[in-house]
Amino acid sequence: MSNKTLSKVADPYARALFEIARNKGQLQEYLDDMAVVVEVFSQCPDLITFFENPFYEDYIKVGVIMSLFINEDSLSDKNSSQHHIKELNKCVDIIPFLQILMYRRRMSLILPIATRFKELCDELVGIKDAFCFSANALTSSQEKELVTALINRTGYKEIRLKVYVDRTLLGGLQVVIDSNLIDVSLRGRLSSLFEKMAS
Questions:
Q1: Nearest to residue 1, comparing CAs of 112, 114, 103?
Q2: One MF term from GO for this chain (predicted)?
Q3: For residue range 37-77, what is the model confidence (pLDDT) as tens digits?
Q4: Cβ contacts of residue 70 below 8 Å, gap of 6+?
Q5: Most buried residue, 91, 129, 142, 170, by most Cβ within 10 Å?
Q6: In the chain, where the domains are located
Q7: Would strands 173-177 and 158-165 be described as parallel, antiparallel, or unpaired?
């Protein structure tokens, strides 16, 4: 599946998780849990292949999930590291969600789900990511001006701007936010001009 298709399929799962976390008043706890899950799956990509493999029985996969995200020793050993206990035991809240993904053979969506889940949490408090593609590197003052302009235009409280240099733009820049493209590059203006000439 393409990244766009993966994001589309992952969206309803992320929204379901978001609603559960919001209704329980535990958005930050769920964010922390998902950060642990992302770290584990990012460090061991073969896990996804394992969970998607029908050769292994579901009870084996459930056991792997439990061993990955529940520190069983900490439940009985009070002398264990408190940081380690806190980090892993909060993942008990995520176990049922991971099991649903496993049973539906959707574990390959875990990373896009985590990304979308974080986006939904950010949007709730007025934070949004924006991606800027510029023909030249922007100065810090230019970045601040662009962020201010985007905040005024979109109404978000905070914009996290990520800037990438793209020499093919022939001057100017493009900004992607909320799946919308703001194109003020020379290439974009030329393309628009050609479209008008052809119509």
A1: 112
A2: proton-transporting ATP synthase activity, rotational mechanism
A3: 999 999 998 999 999 999 999 999 999 998 888 865 544 44
A4: 88, 89, 91, 92, 95
A5: 91
A6: 3-123, 126-198
A7: unpaired
